[in-house]
Amino acid sequence: MWHQGILKGGRTTEVQTESGHINRPARQGTAAWFRWLSWREWLVFFGMGAAVILLELRNHRMMWLEHGSGQTVWTDPELVGEIILFGLILPILGGLILGYQARTAVERDQIAEELALRRQLVAQIHKAKSWVDLVDIVVQTPGAVVPAAYAWLLLQRTNEESFMQVAHWHRPGHQLRLPLTNDAMSTCEQCLSSTVQNGTRIVSCEHSGGADQSTRYCLTFCSEITGKAALFFELPAEQQLARRQISMLDDLGKEISLAIDNANLNHLKQRQDSVARGERLRIARNLHDTLGQNISYLRLKLEQLNDTNLAGDPHRFQDDLVNMLAVADEAYLQVRDTLDELRASEQQELETIIGNYATQVSQRAGLLVDTKSSGKPRNLSATTSRQLMYIIREALNNVEKHASATAVQINLM
Q1: 304 part of a folded domain
Q2: Cα–Cα distance between 354 and 372 in angstroms, integer?
Q3: Could you tell me whether strands 368-373 and 150-156 are parallel, antiparallel, or unpaired per DSSP bridges?
Q4: pLDDT category, 1, cuts 50, 70, 90?
Q5: Which end of the chain is more exposed for a tag (fewer CB within 10 A), N or C?
Q6: Quick one: 295 and 375 in the same domain?
């Protein structure tokens, strides 16, 4: 779920970069060169064809004079064929080939640019050092991929709570928009509760973009249980998302989901560490007040028995032994109860974490994840429990990405 500590008490962050978006990689020069050639290529080929035609025309005239045939340009079929070949067919074919190469170079450079941008965005998303940094990067992401003017990030911690706007972004030169209205946030619930069509996280928002009639889209991610999220962004009314842009935003949505999952896990780990420290202090105080007192009593009685003439008062010695045995039994029970409490707490904590993450993956990937626990709980160290959780998380991520599975079963024994 979206934790209160993560949400920073509902703080809304406004983000505005100097360039209006995350830095994009520089475009390669090959496509620029072909674009420069695209309108000259026809002149080059037609010029070459004209030169060949003039040369052939000169040769044919010399042949006509030499043989006295009296032919002209239009009565010589061989010359007419050469004019058609070198004046039309070859220049057109050459221009089409160079034009195709130019378009291919442009598309290749666009793909290379998009891949470089995707790598840059993914690296920035996963290298975010804090939740605030992650939110700032996420809310700027649409502006780096498409010419979006505005973006809003909405989060919902639990199914019982409404959406909360935690960040918004606008491109420099555009007027700052007010936060989304309750009407727009209710649209979020409709988008996230419905099934996303065509296998993409991008849905067209039905809510109007305002007086400028801009087109609003919504990038959805996260799960039903651990929290929903929606990243709204607006495009000018005359622009629509291209298929390649939808694919890129969809891929980035998956990376954002993983980054948010990691942020939630890190926050959960920090909270668990804090709880563990508090629990250790509580146990230490409890042991000091109970076990410590009993051990001090036993030590004191042993010192007294060591300094006492045991033969002179055997009844007192017997009574002291009975009392010491009772205190020792009580100390043993205190130690056993404390160990049982620690083992039960560790086992329950690990099962809860694994169950929550399994449910999250199930909702996000459409998998049927079944988690079962059997047998007697084992005493695992904090390091072992954490490593086990990371292994299970990585295994579930691999199943989600590569296995094309429909069901996963996790057995804790």
Answers
A1: yes
A2: 10
A3: unpaired
A4: very low
A5: C
A6: yes
The burial class, CB within 10 Å (0-12 / 13-18 / 19+), for 197 is exposed
- pLDDT tens, residue by residue, 57-113: 888 888 877 777 777 777 788 878 888 888 788 887 877 787 777 788 888 888 888
372-377 average pLDDT score: 73
pLDDT in tens, 257-285: 888 777 777 777 788 788 878 877 877 78
Could you tell me the two tokens for 216?
């609003």
Residue 196 domain boundaries: 4-19+128-257
On whether residue 57 sits in a domain, the answer given is yes
Give the chain's domain count.
Answer: 3
Which of 88, 123, 158 is a domain's end point?
123
Assess contact for 169 and 14: CB atoms under 8 A: yes
Residues 7, 157 contacting (CB under 8 angstroms):
yes
pLDDT in the model for residue 178: 60
**Which CATH number goes with the domain that contains 299?**
3.30.565
Q: Is residue 38 over pLDDT 50?
A: yes
Q: Is the pLDDT reported for residue 28 higher than 70? A: no
Which residue would you say has higher pLDDT here, 177 or 371? Answer: 371
Q: What is the pTM of this model?
A: 0.52
Please report whether residue 242 resides in a domain. yes
Block residue for tokens 């990067």: 137
